[in-house]
Design a protein that fits this description.
The structure holds two protein chains of two kinds.
Chain A: H1 2-18, H2 24-31, H3 36-44, H4 50-53, H5 63-82, H6 90-114, H7 120-126, H8 138-142, H9 147-153, H10 158-169, H11 175-197, H12 203-231, H13 236-241, H14 252-260, H15 264-271, H16 288-311, H17 317-341, H18 346-351
Helix pairs in contact in A: 5-17, 6-11, 9-10, 10-11, 12-15, 12-16, 14-15, 16-17
Chain B: E1 6-14, H1 18-28, E2 32-34, H2 42-45, E3 49-50, H3 58-71, H4 90-130, H5 138-141, E4 148-155, H6 156-165, E5 171-178, E6 182-189, H7 194-203, E7 207-208, H8 219-250, H9 252-272, E8 276-277, E9 281-289, H10 290-299, E10 305-310, H11 311-318, E11 323-324, H12 331-343, H13 354-368, H14 372-388, H15 391-411, H16 431-459, H17 463-468, H18 473-492, H19 498-513, H20 515-522, H21 533-554, H22 556-579, H23 585-624, E12 630-631
Parallel strand pairs in B: 11-12
Antiparallel strand pairs in B: 1-9, 1-10, 2-9, 3-8, 4-6, 4-7, 5-6, 8-9
Helix pairs in contact in B: 1-9, 3-4, 3-9, 4-8, 12-13, 12-15, 13-15, 13-23, 14-15, 14-23, 16-18, 16-21, 16-22, 16-23, 18-19, 22-23
């Protein structure tokens, strides 16, 4: 009953929005397009993206711009949905936005630490526009010339302490290697805060958040460990410390087993004996690096699709359901666009999509 | 209305006129710059180049700001008193600032060093406090040979992983303290394992802190020693500070004279950075209220070209948001802008609800808290706040309090006592009449909101909104007959023109049900129902009908709070009387009476303020106010936060 009162309006809105998600036919049509402008034109005719892409000149849109535009569309949806979250806990609501602010921060810091040359207008397009909800100005961070200036630009925000701690604990590391350290710290912080803030949502919503965020953390960490075993020479303890601070199905003993494994082959065996064995059934040492991301995303997508029936219509699950499905949709459209751009055959592109056609 | 009409203005200026023109623009303080690339067509903008920051005042500005930073002085700046037309010798001013900077640089640096040292001492004190419970001599800790002790902290989120990861290693991790962000640790390990241990700690984002082990003695002894050092350092810092101040004050006249001039010139060039050039001509685009734009147009020099376009046209063509300037004449209305803006800024083209808010809010507040004496106290409070600087809040409060005084006469209530005859009615006695007046007032206010929505709909040419929505004409055609029908039924027992009323209600219901397709027909679009149309509409109608009823009933609270005010007073009065006969009763009686008055003014005042806001925001604004606007920020001499 409380769920109905709290989520009645927003669920209705989310259902309406979900109706606009791309259908299988849409995907098949996209796969058969011959060029990027054709893809843009097709998307302009869809209900989902018609508004955002409608007025633009299809021939002038670059592949990367398209992805940015689609993500801005998602952000627009989220803002719309938020006007329905009237009685909701504000702390938690803000955190759902901060995901995008953290992405902005990562892009800016990456650029500064890489000391790359950039075109300011192009960079501005890559940043999500959070309007009045933003607590940082990513363009200002972009202008920083060293670590101290990055910290200055972050003053007054909680990000400053997170980034300062990352810099301070890895004092001897070169700026380029610091990028992954800082990104890891930010992701960790965001997850911890989200789980913490979910306590104010009431038991059933809190459980849903823990399951959804927890599974996402599980999948992310499995993928991360595969990369560690393939590319880095980390001790088991170091690998363990680089994991996210919250999990759902992965218990310490299994995490230890994964971290302790010596090399990719052993890791794959351990994964196939763990709680996600079904997800990674087809994983082998040879295909691990190329398939790990896709398999994880496919699992998360199917969970998102089924989350409403499983977790309840009138709950925060409806929010995650829509947002996650749209995120995967954008990923797939980007994959298709890249494939079409480089002339890859539709059947081959299909293999790399999250959605199973 | 009270949202100023905006123009989008483009200046085409030859190079020699740029400074002059920019100066005029900044002085007018009614221009918000915008990047001209987004306004003009692509063919034109492709041949434009952005202005490089060519600012002849940059050097002298930097020197001046350096000095001001080091001396921590902010000179007075009065926009109206700047004279930027007088030529100045940039070089000599720059030289003088350079000289002054050299004079104070040493003191400044020394001051910084000492401040850093002060921070270090305070840092040690901080750690010493963490270890305060240890009764061991800190000097002894450094003597430990066979075990290596590392002291530091990890973010709390990494603590669990760290403990878990190092279970099988020769590391002992002890948490000695935990604050909001960090977990403070003693880490014990063997000297052989130290390097490996540090790598493990590093992967958990561990930051080492220096244990104050150069200090002998227990933490308590170290603490008092450091505290004296802190005092000495503070005195040295002050000495350096005085030296800097001496230089400052002997040059104060010079600084005060040239600061506004240099800053003003710099702002002229800040504005210039928004321009684009074709080579010999400079284009500057921005938003200006139509009135000011017209005046400016008449005063521009001949060789400067000023092109005005209506803001609506540009905003529609280029899909850009027009900034909104809310303009209300008179102190009373200006005060209530604060109430409107708390909800949001009106979108461009919307009616500015501020005048109506002023009237309705004042009325409702007085209705709910009607007492001559309490109103007078609140008026004084509002006046006090006004004088103290919260002009807008003060105005709102004084306005509301005046209504309270008025209703005090209506209810015949002075400080709760019925000393005056009631010019209208006594709330406690004529409850029904009070409630009825409240509800009908509410119906009126809601209807007014719908009328504003219809006006907005016509202005925006949104026919669905104006005609067919529940807050539009269809809504009114449903609402008023329904109200009339119910009123007549309740008071007279029978309803006249029953058939007409039924027809109107049914027609309007159908219109509201089909508002989307009807709106599309009227605006000539294709009929597109969209998925889930019937479900959405069905639930929507259910929601609408219920909210018509609930919104009107919501206004019963006006009567309810008027009642509680009286009732609360009665309660305190009874308590006052009850206490009188007791020993020392006079004192208790006065105390209780005063407390009661405090509650009646303070607590009730707060509650009634909030209720008035709520009725304004939720029952009134939601009928018409989209509030999606962005506020207009004119470019002025003062540095603003630029996004």
């Amino acid at each position: 009953m409380i769920g109905f009162v709290r989520y009645g309006g927003v669920s209705a809105k989310l259902y309406a929005l979900s109706g606009n998600l791309l259908t299988e036919d849409d995907y098949k049509n996209l796969l058969n397009q011959k060029s990027v402008p054709d893809i843009v034109r097709y998307l302009q005719s869809t209900k989902m993206y018609g508004d955002t892409l409608g007025t633009l000149n299809a021939d002038q849109i670059h592949r990367r711009d398209l992805e940015n535009l689609l993500e801005e569309d998602l952000l627009k949806d989220i803002k719309k949905i938020f006007s329905f979250f009237v009685t909701f806990d504000r702390n938690f609501m803000h955190l759902l936005f901060y995901r995008y602010e953290v992405e902005n921060l990562k892009i800016a810091i990456r650029s500064v630490l890489n000391k790359e040359e950039y075109n300011i207008n192009e960079m501005k397009r890559r940043f999500f526009d959070l309007g009045e909800r933003s607590t940082i100005d990513p363009v200002k961070i972009l202008g920083a010339k060293n670590q101290d200036e990055i910290l200055d630009a972050l003053s007054g925000t909680p990000y400053q302490e997170v980034v300062r701690n990352a810099f301070a604990s890895y004092k001897q590391t070169s700026p380029i290697n610091l990028i992954g350290i800082v990104e890891n710290a930010l992701d960790s912080w965001l997850l911890a805060k989200t789980i913490n803030a979910s306590k104010n949502l009431g038991t059933s919503d809190q459980a849903i958040v823990k399951e959804i965020e927890g599974e996402r953390a599980d999948i992310t960490d499995i993928e991360w460990l595969v990369r560690i075993k393939a590319f880095y020479d980390l001790k088991p303890e170091e690998a363990y410390n680089s994991l996210l601070p919250f999990h759902f199905r992965l218990r310490p003993d299994h995490l230890h087993a994964m971290c302790d494994s010596k090399g990719l082959k052993e890791l794959v065996d351990v994964i196939k004996e763990g709680p996600y064995s079904d997800v990674y059934k087809e994983l082998t040492e040879e295909n691990a690096l190329s398939r790990i991301t896709l398999l994880g995303r496919r699992y998360l997508r199917s969970k998102a699709k089924g989350s409403i029936t499983k977790l309840g219509n009138f709950s925060i699950a409806t929010y995650f359901h829509y947002v996650l499905l749209k995120e995967f949709e954008i990923m797939d459209v980007a994959t298709i666009t890249e494939g079409v751009r480089y002339g890859i055959k539709p059947d081959e592109i299909k293999e790399r999509l999250v959605i199973k056609l | 209305m009270a949202v100023s009409r905006m123009d989008n203005v483009t200046f085409v200026v030859p190079r020699e006129r740029v400074e002059d023109n920019n100066l005029k623009i900044i002085e007018a303080a009614s221009f918000e710059p915008h990047y001209v690339e987004e306004i003009l067509d692509n063919e034109i903008t492709s041949s434009l180049s952005k202005v490089q920051s060519e600012n002849p005042y940059r050097q002298v500005y930097t020197e001046m700001m350096n000095f001001l930073k080091m001396s921590e002085y902010k000179p007075p700046f009065d926009e109206k008193e700047i004279n930027l037309y007088e030529p100045i010798d940039i070089d000599s001013i720059e030289k003088k600032f350079k000289l002054m900077n050299e004079g104070i640089r040493n003191f400044f640096n020394r001051k910084n060093e000492l401040t850093k040292q002060l921070k270090d001492y305070e840092n040690v004190l901080f750690h010493v406090n963490i270890l305060a419970n240890l009764k061991i001599d800190l000097g002894d800790l450094s003597q430990i040979n066979r075990i290596k002790l590392i002291f530091g902290r990890v973010p709390i989120r990494n603590y669990d992983n760290l403990i878990e990861s190092s279970l099988k290693d020769p590391i002992l991790i002890l948490e000695v303290n935990r604050d909001r962000d960090n977990s403070w640790l003693f880490v014990f390990t063997s000297p052989d394992f130290e390097e490996a241990a540090r790598k493990i700690l590093q992967s958990a984002y561990f930051e080492e802190d220096a244990l104050p082990v150069d200090y002998t003695g227990t933490p308590k002894e170290v603490k008092s020693r450091i505290e004296s050092l802190v005092e000495i350092t503070k005195i040295s810092i002050n000495e350096n500070d005085f030296a800097i101040k001496k230089v400052l004050y002997s040059n104060k006249e010079f600084i005060d004279k040239y600061y506004p001039i240099i800053l003003g010139h710099k702002r002229v060039y800040d504005l210039h950075s928004f321009s684009s050039s074709t080579g010999s001509l400079y284009l500057l685009n921005g938003w200006m209220p139509s009135k000011e734009a017209k005046k400016f147009f008449e005063e521009t020099e001949e060789d400067v070209l000023m092109i005005n376009e209506s803001a609506e046209k540009i905003s529609k063509q280029k899909k850009i948001e027009v900034p909104v300037k809310v303009e209300n004449r008179g102190g009373w209305l200006k005060g209530f802008e604060f109430v409107t803006k708390m909800f949001g800024i009106p979108s461009y083209g919307e009616v500015d609800p501020t005048p109506f808010v002023a009237a309705f809010f004042t009325f409702m507040f007085g209705f709910m808290l009607g007492d001559v004496g309490h109103g007078a106290i609140l008026f004084l409070f509002g006046y006090f706040m006004y004088k103290k600087g919260s002009k807008q809040f003060g105005t709102v409060m004084m306005s509301a309090a005046s209504a309270s005084i008025f209703f005090g006469f209506m209810y015949g209530s002075v400080f709760g006592f019925e000393w005056l005859p009631a010019l209208w009615l006594r709330p406690i006695i004529q409850i029904n009449q009070l409630m009825i007046v409240g509800i009908y007032y509410g119906i009126g206010m809601i209807s007014f909101g719908m009328i504003l929505n219809i006006i907005n709909g016509f202005r925006q040419r949104n026919w669905e909104k104006a005609f067919f929505s529940p807050e539009g004409i269809a809504g009114l055609v449903f609402y008023w007959p329904a109200v009339i029908a119910v009123s007549f039924y309740l008071f007279e027992g029978k309803v006249p023109y029953m058939n007409l009323i039924i027809v109107l209600i049914i027609v309007s219901l159908i219109a509201m049900l089909l508002k989307k397709p009807l709106g599309q027909i009227v605006s000539g679009e294709k009929i597109n129902l969209g998925e889930g149309f019937w479900v959405e509409t069905g639930f929507g109608m259910f929601d609408t009908l219920i909210s018509f009823l609930s919104n009107a009933i919501s206004y019963v609270r006006l009567a309810a709070f008027a009642l509680t005010h009286e009732a609360l007073f009665e309660a305190f009065w009874i308590m006052t009387l009850m206490v009188l006969p007791a020993r020392g009763g006079d004192v208790w009686a006065i105390l209780i009476f005063l407390m009661g008055q405090l509650v009646l003014v303070g607590l009730e005042g707060l509650v009634v303020f909030i209720q008035s806001l709520r009725l304004t925001y939720y029952e009134f604004f939601t009928k018409f106010f989209e509030a999606g606007g962005r506020e207009f920020h004119p470019f002025t001499f003062s540095e603003e936060k630029r996004v």
